[in-house]
Write a structure and sequence with these properties.
The chain has helices at 7-23, 27-39, 43-62, 90-94, and strands at residues 3-6, 83-86. It is mainly α. The protein has one domain.
Length: 95
């Protein structure tokens, strides 16, 4: 059975994943960050970790990247044999 996918759907999904990855920490990472603050004994270390937590909060609330140097996204995609893309090139949609 042939399935047709508009490349705009691919672009929208990748955009959403990039935004989420750059503005929010996963729950397990957020919990680990809180634990690190609670366990840190050095005043400077606690201050820096607390500031990082504040930055995470601001990033989520203001919808800005956690870090301005977030790197480059690498996308791996698997496509079955019975898929047809319409509306443009898959490579352009990803990029």
């Amino acid at each position: 059975m042939l399935r047709t996918v508009n490349v705009k759907e691919i672009t929208a999904a990748i955009k959403e994943m990039c935004i989420e990855a750059n503005q929010f920490l996963s729950e397990d990472m957020a919990a680990r960050m809180k634990k690190a603050v609670d366990e840190e004994e050095a005043p400077l270390g606690k201050q820096i970790l607390t500031q990082l937590q504040e930055n995470l909060k601001i990033a989520g609330e203001d919808m800005i990247p956690i870090c301005q140097d977030t790197g480059m996204a690498v996308v791996f995609i698997k496509v079955g044999q019975e898929v047809h893309f319409e509306g443009g090139s898959l490579t352009d949609a990803i990029n």
